[in-house]
Amino acid sequence: MREKARHAMRLILEAARFEVEEVDEPLDLSAVRDNTCLLVLCSNDSDLIDQFDKTNYSLMVDDHEMTCSKLLFSIDKGIVTENCIHWGVDEFVRYTGEAVLADILNRELALDLTPSKGKKITSASGIPKQEDPVNAESSGIVIPHYPIKITEQAAIRKGGSQGTAKLRFIPYYLFHYTSSGEQVYKDRRIPFDADGWGAINAINGIKIDLDDKLVEENEIPGGSEVAESHIRKDEATDRFVNELIDRLTQKVRIKQERGDAIFYEEKTLKPEKKNISVDTKQVYIPVWQIRGKKIIEVNAFTGELLSEPMDEGVEIF
Hints:
Blueprint: H1 2-15, E1 19-22, E2 29-33, E3 36-42, H2 46-54, E4 56-61, E5 64-67, E6 69-73, E7 80-81, E8 85-87, H3 89-105, E9 119-120, E10 138-145, H4 152-159, E11 164-179, E12 182-185, E13 188-191, E14 194-201, E15 207-208, E16 216-221, E17 225-226, H5 233-248, E18 250-258, E19 261-269, E20 276-291, E21 295-299
Parallel strand pairs: 3-6, 4-19, 6-8, 11-17
Antiparallel strand pairs: 1-2, 2-3, 4-5, 7-9, 10-16, 11-14, 11-20, 12-13, 14-15, 18-19, 20-21
């Protein structure tokens, strides 16, 4: 039961925009947001709860000490606390449901984190079927691009509106990255090994997931338009590397005991740029642009109906 409670509490706190991590027993979670630090205990053990209620906790974040608040979840209706935020069944049910709704609406969950001094819990408990590719005369232009799997008529049917269709090739920078190296902080060894793919739209800078498995380099159909890049290759690569460093960055928390108090120290460890290798190449994604009463765009590779086009008819994928 405790494992399930821990999982649900994590979802609630993450919906409230906390950074949540598991901590050493007997505690369950730590959660940090701005200048707020929470330590979470899910238990019905009265002795463990009493010790948790009496203990002072602090967290050291980049040489700044923060006093931690304490959040207890217990379904024992006889538990009384003096120094904790105390949630019982009612609070748990309420916030679990609100966390799901907040995720659906992409909103931040608001939590009441007022200490519950002397509180006693009394409550009871898809891609469409593929058709033949475009059958058109060759243009003589050869570029690396993803295959055209959706015909013009299929794109018009997908868009649900009649109009003039034009095939456009949107430029992307495709990255294959490898990261290595590690950092050591006290007794913790943090590796930064990673290998993968990513892509950035060369016009609007939007990131998407791509790899090179289906890229083909051959002539595109006659009458197609090849959109020009607005972002330089080196700019896109630098941005991608910086975002990769942020993604691989880890926080290390070290637990120490000082008398009757428990002290946490946190350090932020980042990979070094020299240990990251990125191969960058430009590729293109085909898009059917249908101009009728309004402009509709359909990804000619996946069949995805895109939202309203941006300036110059360029769509965010």
